[in-house]
Design a protein that fits this description.
9 helices; single chain; Rossmann fold; 23% strand; 212 residues
Length: 212
């Protein structure tokens, strides 16, 4: 009886969770950016490769929303020629100067807060967590969002208990040894830029769906 009451209480709490509030987009509309410069990220995780993976996944959803995105490899190369190698230093540099270097209307800053795989008993949870900030060429923040995504390998729900246990342990070990962060990152970016309640507005280069 107590267990049933606990389950019911948790269900009620879950049902009371409010959806994210719609943010004011007036600053974004006032800036009306047409081109977006994606600069190297700040990496707070322990994976030194995380910034490269994240940068590689950002242009597609932004371009799908109808904005010109400067090639990230070219951007990184130009910044390095100017002496900017670390994401922290780039993020501290005045946005108007960065935007002027490339002729961009806005600059996207991304911080990697989590990029890890945690092992517990016979499960492994892969987690990515990002902060996004879009700043116009005059230095005004016009949009921001945060996203956290998690993944656990799905195990078989049928078969001998020992076989299921072994399979779960193997799946967890594989996920821990070689976690696949890219699908999680792509999903996070898609929800933030395209599907989310605070997704950026459609840009000037997005095809009119009514013409399809």
């Amino acid at each position: 009886m107590r267990i049933m009451l606990l389950v019911l209480a948790l269900s009620l709490l879950t049902g009371c969770v409010a959806p994210p509030a719609k943010r004011d987009m007036s600053a974004f509309y006032a800036a009306a950016p047409r081109s977006i410069l994606v600069v190297p990220t700040i990496n707070k995780s322990l994976d030194v490769d995380a910034p490269n993976y994240v940068l590689a996944t950002l242009p597609v959803p932004i371009a799908e929303k109808g904005y010109y995105v400067f090639p990230v490899n070219t951007t990184t190369y130009v910044l390095e020629q100017e002496g900017f190698y670390e994401g922290e230093r780039i993020h501290e540099h005045p946005t108007p100067i960065l935007a002027k270097m490339f002729g961009a209307d806005a600059v996207l800053y991304v911080t990697i807060n989590r990029w890890d795989a945690q092992y517990l008993l016979i499960t492994t949870t892969v987690t990515v967590e990002f902060d996004y900030r879009l700043v116009s060429k005059d230095g005004t923040e016009i949009w921001k969002e945060s996203k956290r995504m998690q993944y656990q390998p799905q195990n078989s729900t049928s078969g001998p208990p020992l076989a299921m246990l072994i399979a779960a342990a193997v799946n967890a070990a594989v996920a821990r040894a070689a976690p696949n962060y890219i699908p999680l990152t792509q999903q996070a970016n898609r929800e933030v830029f395209i599907l989310g309640v605070n997704a950026i507005p459609d840009g000037p280069y997005r095809p009119d769906s009514s013409k399809k």
